[in-house]
Design brief:
By secondary structure, the protein is of the alpha/beta class. The chain is 56% helix and 20% strand. It has ten helices and eleven strands.
Length: 294
């Protein structure tokens, strides 16, 4: 019988097949690297234990380090790719149970996108924690480890779900705001057929009618109407003017960076196909050259 000098037991009551699959993949990789480690399964009541044995001999020290790392990698992968998905779903079902099913699904999708972006960071943090833990411990009970040593991890997941819920509420409020404004625009008779919108580099916007007469000129110099990194914070102001005029057509003579900013996108959503983007025409060149100082 071989003299076993070091063994590590990983116990789980809930994740037998997942742990088996991940450990097998990691240990097969070590075997391919010439660092084969023996392992076996043992059933004890409701628990399954995976016992990894490092046998003395050639590369013994390297095998012990590789064994610890393989376990840490397998179990950290288990948490971020399996357990946390179940945790997030259960959390949403419990604390958002009065929301509509499609809303709960939307929260899960929003939280999932955020979790995906930070997955590597979370996995590496758990991996390092597990690797350090196994330096002094030979038994790892996965459920116990999750409950007592990963409290910050679960708190982070809860915060991400809560943030996703807040974002969904804000999105619903915004959608309702746009819907009501769109309805108001649709039931009003246009007070003017066409409006041309120009915005210069100083942050002043001009509204012209179809004959080239100035309807409105506003200098965006107040704290709420300033220009920051190319983004104009005049959404409510310009939108309210356009809603008052209810034009049949609105042409924005602005560069792409302004056309795609949030303020103008909101106007596009409210007025729909009444809004047109002009990237350069004779009217643009004439007005910017002669009437609109840059």
């Amino acid at each position: 019988m071989k003299d076993v000098v070091s063994d590590i037991a990983i116990g789980t009551a809930l994740y037998r097949s997942e742990v088996r699959e991940r450990l097998k993949a990691e240990l097969n990789f070590l075997t391919g690297e010439g660092l084969a480690i023996e392992w076996k399964e043992e059933e004890r009541d409701l628990w399954t234990f995976f016992v990894l044995q490092v046998i003395p001999g050639k590369k013994y020290g390297k095998k012990r380090i590789a064994c610890r790392f393989a376990i840490a990698k397998a179990i950290s992968d288990l948490f971020v790719n399996h357990v946390e998905i179940i945790y997030v779903k259960n959390y949403i079902d419990k604390y958002y149970r009065y929301w509509l099913p499609r809303e709960r699904e939307e929260i899960a999708n929003r939280a999932g996108e955020t979790l995906k972006k930070l997955r590597v960071i979370r996995r590496n943090k758990i991996l390092q924690n597990l690797y350090d833990y196994l330096a002094d411990q030979q038994i790892l009970l996965i459920e116990g480890y999750a409950n007592f040593r990963l409290k910050d991890y679960w708190s982070q997941l809860r915060r991400m779900v809560q943030r996703a819920g807040q974002e969904l509420v804000a999105a619903k409020d915004y959608f309702e705001f746009i819907r009501l404004l769109r309805y108001f625009v649709e039931i009003q008779e246009p007070k003017i057929q066409k409006v041309h919108v120009f915005i210069n580099s100083a942050g002043t916007f001009y509204l012209f009618d179809q004959k080239g007469n100035i309807i409105r000129k506003e200098v965006l110099s107040s704290p709420s109407l300033t220009v920051n990194n190319g983004e104009f914070s005049y959404e409510d102001f310009l939108l309210s003017i356009l809603i008052t005029l209810v034009p049949q057509k609105i042409t924005f003579h602005v560069p792409d960076r302004i056309w795609h900013c949030e303020s103008v996108q909101t106007i596009q959503q409210v007025f729909g196909n009444r809004v047109i983007h002009c990237t350069g025409c004779d009217k643009c060149r004439h007005l910017y050259a002669n009437l609109i100082p840059t």
